[in-house]
Structure formats: C-alpha cells, structure tokens
Design goal:
Oligomer: single chain
CATH superfamily: Cytidine Deaminase, domain 2
Strand order of the largest sheet: 1-6-5-4-2-3
Shape: globular
Structural class: alpha+beta
Number of domains: 1
CATH class: Alpha Beta
CATH topology: Cytidine Deaminase, domain 2
Number of strands: 6
Number of helices: 3
Order of helices and strands: EHEEHEHEE
Strand content: 15-25%
Distance between the termini: 28 Å
C-alpha cells in the first residue's frame, strides 16, 4: 500500500513574520462577526492577495442545518477570481466557549475543495495558516496537501 505525507510547519503566532501575524489577527477579528447561536463555535478566515488586500469572512449557522456556511466559503464567495489578483495565503481562526484543549483548526472537506479550486484557477499555491485561540499555528504551504485526491475540472 502506498502512503501519503506532506510537509508542514508548526509554531506560535508570535514567532511568525509581522504580515502573517496581521493576517491571523484579521481572521481572529472575523471570528467575532460570526453568527453561531447554536454551537457557539465562531470561525473567522482572512486571505491576503498579491496587492496586499486582506479580505475576511466568518461562519453563519442556520436552524435549518446544514444551510449554514463556513467562514472559508463565505470568504471565497466574496473573492473576485477574475481580477488577476492572486491569493497568497489564508488564515483560519476560531473562538469557542469550550475550555478544553484548543488545537489549530483545519478546514472541512468542502472548504478544502473551495480553497483548492482557487489555487488551481490561479495556478499558484495558496499557503494555509491554521491557528488556535492559544496562539498555536500550523502552516501548510500548498493547499493541495490538504486534499491530495481532489476533484477538479479534468474530471468534467
């Protein structure tokens, strides 16, 4: 049986370059705008483009589950993919009332596919910074690592 592995880095937010700390802080601030009355699990996402523009999004729950939307998909839904302005990185952060362990947050499968679709469209890797409330960060430098057997237009 074949095995799959990929490189990643783990650090603390305070150890990252200032522009990445700013991106993660934007994701943390976006989590404050989340609508999560059912789970109280607030997620924020922020991306930075080649021109330095930072966009944000947050999750929005719905009583008619699963009609809600994740922060990452809300964010990419506002992205103008035809502008020629490429996405360099995305940061994902969360806030929860749960007082247990807080590992960095990884995107769900649909969000992984959404991020990867943008990466395939722009033909340039998107770095993914996954953070936790206590400042732990995992960096994956290429979104395709998070979804190795992805679906793409080549199947259509």
């Amino acid at each position: 049986m074949q095995q799959f592995g990929f490189p990643y880095q783990q650090s603390l937010k305070a150890q990252l370059p200032a522009h990445i700390q700013t991106l993660i802080s934007a994701a943390e601030a976006a989590a404050d705008t989340a609508y999560a009355p059912y789970s109280n699990f607030k997620v924020g996402a922020a991306l930075v483009q080649t021109d330095g523009t930072i966009l944000t999004g947050s999750n929005h729950e719905n009583a008619a589950f699963p009609a809600g939307i994740c922060a990452e998909r809300a964010l990419f839904g506002s992205l103008n993919m035809g502008s020629g302005n490429k996405v360099l990185a995305i940061a994902i952060a969360y806030k929860t009332e749960n007082k247990d362990r807080h590992p960095p947050l990884s995107p769900c499968g649909i969000c992984r596919q959404t991020i990867l679709e943008a990466q395939l469209h722009q033909q340039q890797p998107i770095a993914v910074y996954m953070s936790s409330p206590d400042g732990q960060v995992i960096l994956v430098e290429d979104a395709s690592y998070l979804l190795p057997f992805h679906f793409s237009s080549e199947y259509l």
